[in-house]
Amino acid sequence: MDRPVIRKLALATGLAVAPMGASAHQLIVFASVDCEAVTVEAKFSNGNAVQEAEVRVFDGQNSLLTTLPINTDGTVSLPLESVDHATGLLIEVDTGSHDNYWIVTPDDIATGCNS
Q1: Which residues form the signal peptide (predicted)?
Q2: CATH of residue 92
């Protein structure tokens, strides 16, 4: 191949691949409550579970209560007895390159205990 053909091929390949790098995976965070614990699940928009992340738990006044590592299946369980949840909880998951959160209200906790 001559140089102009190689350049055109490289440019075409770069243009085709560039949008793939620009489209990041969204981080999806979900939390469910029962009377004993909050179960947090984190995955990417492609369905892959988050493998490594820090889960930070804040109270309703935005004070950090605890930090937990996420399990390799993308989940972590937070015992309700281990935190003051009277004002609700903000669950933040941070992978280092992506972050998102889920809010657990006092009503969510009360409903989880009544179901």
Answers
A1: 1-24
A2: 2.60.40.1930
